[in-house]
Amino acid sequence: MQGAADHPRKTIAIFLMLTFALSAVTWVPQIREGKLDPIWVTATMWSPGIAAILTKLITQRDLRGMGWMPKPGKLLGLAYVLPILYALPVYLLAWTVGLGTFDEGKWIVAPGLSPPVGLLIIASAGLFTSLLSALGEEIGWRGLLVPELTRLTSFRNTALISGGIWAAWHMPLLFAADYHGQGTPILYSMACFVAMVLAISIIMAWITLKSGSLWPAAMLHAAHNLFVQGVFDSATVADDRTNYLTGEFGIGLVITIAIAAFLLIRMYPIVPKEPT
Description:
By secondary structure, the chain is mostly helical. 72% of the residues lie in helices and 1% in strands.
């Protein structure tokens, strides 16, 4: 008799039910307060990971097939630097044309240290913390959802379906808390965010299937949060127009991430590796 592990649709359904049920518990206090809370945000980000682990234990009694092995190293390196490559041009453009200004003081972490040294320290020290939270999501989205979807459909559909679910999962906090662009219409924030998530989901699916591991996606997610939110956003003094271009709710990252996704899948076609 076949179990749910032999039926990707059942496995995905169980995972999504558990993910949204667990996430709802963490959404409620943030929606009630109308703002994000760091502790509850971490709990929210770990909801997909916990749901994925429970799903695997329910359906196949073990945690095989989620890509636990951190291989290969070159894709981990790519995952770390890629957010710099697609984010830096957006912020350089904003600073150059006057859509906000660059505050180098945000990159000075101690007297006598230059901004580049400060940036290096921030990028190194913040990565571990960022990875701890990003890992929770990626165990779910790329450790379980992407591999299961590939058993049902094409790479393109896998990337877009997983991206659509990922974007929808963010919507309660985007609409009912303060997780959206400041100074821009909520619908603009939503449209840019969804487009960005769909674009980066192509890269996430590509790097997961290319490596057979969830760790490159976790590294990419952590580095994205670190550099976009913790480095470039924090060093930008915004005005009323800045957030139309920069950040996760601006049009700039939509364009640069889409270009990065297009180049990666054209230059390095997918030859999926079986996750272990």
